[in-house]
Amino acid sequence: MLFHSTDLNHYVVDVLRKAGLSAEDGKVVADNLVGANLRGVDSHGVTRLSIYVKRLQAGVVNPRPNVQVVEESDATLLIDGDDGMGQVVGKKAIDLGIEKAKQNGAVYIGVKRSTHFGTGAYFVQQGIEKDLITYAMSNAPSTMAPWGGIQPYIGTNPYAFGVPAGKHRPIIFDMATSVVARGKIITAAQEGKDIPEGWAIDKEGNPTTNAQAGLEGSVLPFGGPKGYSISLMIDILSGVLTGAGFGSHINNIYGDFDKPQNVGHFFQLIDISRLMPVEQFKQRMDQMIEEIKSSPKAAGVEEIFLPGEIEYNTEEKRKAEGIFLSKEVYEDLMQVGEQYGVDINPYTTTGSARER
Amino acid sequence: MLFHSTDLNHYVVDVLRKAGLSAEDGKVVADNLVGANLRGVDSHGVTRLSIYVKRLQAGVVNPRPNVQVVEESDATLLIDGDDGMGQVVGKKAIDLGIEKAKQNGAVYIGVKRSTHFGTGAYFVQQGIEKDLITYAMSNAPSTMAPWGGIQPYIGTNPYAFGVPAGKHRPIIFDMATSVVARGKIITAAQEGKDIPEGWAIDKEGNPTTNAQAGLEGSVLPFGGPKGYSISLMIDILSGVLTGAGFGSHINNIYGDFDKPQNVGHFFQLIDISRLMPVEQFKQRMDQMIEEIKSSPKAAGVEEIFLPGEIEYNTEEKRKAEGIFLSKEVYEDLMQVGEQYGVDINPYTTTGSARER
């Protein structure tokens, strides 16, 4: 089924308002989810809406959180998310952080008592727009064994980073610290597809290509012990340091419906202008990008892409051509709306009666 | 040849004083190099002394740099290293940063006009001792191709991070963003050994197991495009943002003897106490460490180690038993002293006439 991104965004907002969110907060979540679909990261797109709504309905996610600063110094913020949706809590944290970074030069922001924040790139984009170098990290329920172990302890803790450029598009990466995002394994399981070897081990510690067995076992870190170390770093910053859950003490978004997740996030913002005039920085970024793009290519490579470039290309294309959702994702999405009497049909390009 | 670490440290200091450094600065470099040997990271140990001295003699490294703050905000510092030795410049930056982080809660520190800073763990340890979460990064001469390319553009830019724990030892990682540190390939080439496939490609872009061909070609990033993205991030922070060289614009420590390297570093320090009482944080770290150590092990794994734990174990052993240097490294080291009339023999355990 094909959707125009604006229509899909409206559908998500309308459903979330029925689930108790303000229109403003619903828009933040919709921008985050549909933004992921636009960038081609469908595993973190609207496919997540049904579980989000299920947790709101279970009362373990707070639709109207009182997000507040609980500790503060010139260069740090600690924020209590009041069990709100991760996107809403994260956006508030980034907004407060942008203000502080502009005032004092830079900031580190810890967040506790939050939930799954969707795609980290969304937060990074907020900072980049203000000429701030931006990091977004989060811990996550345990799905990855410690290096040398077989039982999940840490999450696939996402690591997102971005910087603006001048005439070129920003450089952004947004990576799971597993070989691939667990969301991709979830998508494979939903679509009944196999996964490549090297993505996950089953619960006995054996390599597996069965998506479901991988979900029940442990995903593998990218780059072996190095990626594992970075994942651990993210859990220490997001979880241990903030007072959120860490390691196996984060509740599962798909399993624990009787208690909040207590996910933690960690954001970093650096005001470029405090180290170098912004225009000069952007010229230097452009130079770097041009030098990399014009570098000799490996056999079979048509173009060298910077981190985030493929996602920007996909976004342009999908903004113009629409977002395609598989039958499984579409039906799941439709059913979420049905619970609230929100009919998905008018929002689809194929079924649309709506003016654009 | 076997050395007691204190004697080896004294030898390095004595040689560096002859090469123009103050006793205090010589001690910083010696602590960094011998510290790497103690931790088992011989590729970043005293094997580097000869090239350091060669660059001091060539006049492209300043033995008495005027390291100063050139830009400052509440949460940022930009430091000009005046082409001093990276260890000396980095130590000054960390000392200034510790002061600022204690005062304002946290800091980001950019450094330009510096040189190879040795092992990042050394700087991380300075911050950890003061209960600060600490990062040390540096860019480096281009030895790694962009993802999709074959010609070196970025360095194996090291990424070091550490946090204190309570009754357990700190967690520290200090990784090259290549599959392995280029220093290990240099060591292999010096010792005439092959390298495993997957570490490097030759200058035509073909996989190679020949260490020398790998040095002339391009090393590979850890974890494919993810490790490459992190390496690029480090170059953006250390190079583009600070005004240091970046990409292919950093001069080669082993090749360019007519100009300074213009390496950049990036340090980050976070005062734990601004987010959580330090004792509570350390208890939480201890809990995490104990949970990981007691996690079920994979087949064939005797013990699960935390990042940095093996290095701490090696340090204990080598402090007691001494540091063994291969014949090649020993002779190279001996010749550096000979130029200044410093005889290495009295410093060795086997040849020692010195009181301890």
Task: Choose one word for the global shape of chain A.
Answer: globular
Biggest interface pair, counts: A-B, 71 and 71 residues
The H-and-E topology of chain A, N to C, reads as EHHHEEHEHEEEHEHEHEHHEH
Question: Runs of chain A with pLDDT <50, length 5+?
Answer: none
Radius of gyration of chain A equals 20 Å
Q: For the largest sheet of chain A, list the strands in their spatial order.
A: 2-3-4-10-5-6-7
Structural class of chain A: alpha+beta
The total strand number of chain A stands at: 11
Oligomeric nature of the chains: homodimer
Main β-sheet of chain A: number of strands, strand sense, barrel status?
7 strands, mixed
> Alpha-carbon distance between the termini of chain A?
18 Å
Number of helical elements of chain A: 11
Provide the β-strand percentage band of chain A.
5-15%
Helix content class of chain A: 25-40%
Quote the average pLDDT of chain A: 95
